[in-house]
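REVIEWER CHECKLIST
Item 1: Sequence provided? yes
Item 2: Single chain? yes
Item 3: Sequence as submitted:
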Amino acid sequence: MNEPSKIKATNSEARQSARPANMSDRRLRFATIAGGIIAAIGVWICATLANAQQPVLKISNLGTNHFSVLITNGISTTNYTLFWTPALQDQNYPWEVLGIGNVGETNFTIDGNGWDTGFFKVLLGTDFDGDGVPEWMDAQPANPAVGILSVTIDSPTNGMVFQ
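Item 4: Structure as written out by the authors:
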């Protein structure tokens, strides 16, 4: 009669020693699946950004040398930078930053006083000068030697609040 209880103990011990291996296998499977899902999401995000529609501009004369530049298929989750040049493909007239929109902004009003001709383009959520700072944070968006805009107020130091 001692023999069957010894077998039960042996079976119980076998089940307990098998649990950690099963738990380890489950964790490994879970980690593999989770890693695959994260990788798939990353690929989807990259593909979505790469396939973003090119902005289409609608330029309207508002009178008295003012113009409206509207991005007709704008994306609400990014910003645009508006550029201008008086001549295309001329090194004497490089593209100049004319305006930097806020996130979701797709309409720019331009004062064209003094311009006989002009060409416009917009870039999607860019870092035009390649300094690693997004346009909306860049102190000079067309100058790679200047980075993030930072303002330090040394005086007054009496706790005054500026409005």
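Item 5: Key structural point noted by reviewer: Residues 2-50 form the longest helix (49 residues).
Item 6: Recommendation: ____
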